[in-house]
């Protein structure tokens, strides 16, 4: 008695039916080859790009790498920023910050998942300017440059006036 798995999938053609069309041979690839092909296609099609969104699930692991999710109103993508790139950031990434990230879409082969491999990150919009201003203000304050003892009274009349302008500009003619 034959086993069910010994049977052919296709019905054998009967003598009156035309010959079925020849099928191309199967091309079987491994999972690793498939992931490598996907990585190549993504790299060729997208290359380096800028992606904007909001940070969430942002964590720096003991390896020094930061893993995060970048999301907008209707979608999200996982992201990673490796230790070497992370050390050049000018701000501390936190959940809720709106950022613009530069990187490439990569494939994490062991799980077959794609992610944004981030090389650079900037704050987006007004928050970036405000954060830079606050950081500079805090730095100058810790250096003691806002202390009352350092302040001098302004003179009633200046002794010298400096002007920076082009030699061909209208401003130099106005001054002369």
Describe the structure in your own words.
With 176 residues, the chain is α+β, with helices and mostly antiparallel strands. It has a domain of 94 residues: OB fold (Dihydrolipoamide Acetyltransferase, E2P). It has four helices and five strands. The protein has a five-stranded mixed β-barrel. The mean pLDDT is 84.
Supply the CATH architecture of the domain at 31-124: Beta Barrel
The whole-number mean of residue pLDDT values reads: 84
Largest sheet: number of strands, sense, barrel closure:
5 strands, mixed, barrel
Q: Give the C-alpha Rg.
A: 32 Å
Strand content is 25-35%
| Approximate helicity band | 10-25%
> Treating each run of at least 4 consecutive H or I residues as one helix, how many helices?
4
CATH class of the domain at 31-124: Mainly Beta
Order of helices and strands: HEEEHEEHH
Provide the CATH superfamily of the domain at 31-124. Answer: Nucleic acid-binding proteins
Structural class per helix/strand content? alpha+beta
